[in-house]
Amino acid sequence: MSKYVISSSPHLRDNVSTRRIMQDVCIALLPAALVGVLFFGYRSAVVLALSVAAAVLSEWFYCKASHTKNTIGDFSAVVTGMLLAMNMPSTVPYWMPVIGAVIAILLCKSIFGGIGQNFINPALAARAILSLSWASQMNTFATPSFGNLAGVDAVASATPISGAAAGGFTLGQLFLGNIPGTIGETCKLALLLGAAYLFYRQVITWHIPAAFIGTFAVCYLIATGFNVTEVIYQLLSGGLILGAFFMATDYSSSPATAKGKIVFGVGCGLLLFIFRYCKNTPAEWCSYAILLMNVVSPLIERVTGVKSFGEGKKNG
Description:
Layout: H1 18-40, H2 42-66, H3 76-86, H4 95-107, H5 122-133, H6 135-138, E1 141-142, E2 155-156, H7 160-165, H8 171-176, H9 188-200, H10 207-223, H11 228-235, H12 240-247, H13 258-279, H14 286-304
Antiparallel strand pairs: 1-2
Helix pairs in contact: 1-2, 1-3, 1-9, 2-3, 2-4, 3-4, 3-5, 4-5, 5-14, 9-12, 10-11, 10-12, 10-13, 13-14
């Protein structure tokens, strides 16, 4: 006689672990991080190292202080540290990535229960806090100097977005990353290679990136009278590619269903368009667009989620 086990969902399981997923994300981020070091010098490597070290140590300290299982082995703190550093200019003081990493891990992740429980992306939330607290340092971008590992000699206060929109950079410069910007956002080729790896490893799906980038592009096409060149400039400027593939797709702070992911991506694209086009300011708004959608993600999940078996409308 066969025995059947009755248990709660989920009934389908996978051998994929959090550690493996986080390691894949680290591998996918490496090309953009290495290009950032080549373009902006040794300071980029120092900022990356300090951010990752501070994130890992913060998580270790919290686990010790709260007498909970040590979770630094799942590599989620490493990913948070890398993403935070890649969203910062190489010119920031060395204490800034340390403070940002502590904020990301303790205030934006651990206090909510750790990985899987945070409702906003920790790296983006920390970046937003740093930008609001030290706007000058976070909005001063180094002039790239490929291969000059000793560092750069000059800084550009103008943002990549304002320069690109005005035609200050060629499409080739924007695609290859030879523009002022944060450590990890400038080289779109490296970011797309990393995104391709994530798709290959089935870490992310197409729903959020396609909806995010597609909505933004369509809105800009309509607003500019179908000026394709301007739309391409905008797609290759700022943190759109980094945000769409590596941060908006964060498991904890985005919907789990396919419909929810599409709604989430559309919201991100629409908000970024409104911020960039209507606000007409030199600030990079991609982080804020994603953070705002993180906040409404539970509502999206509730509306688009699959109903439980047997659930229906109540009579009367």
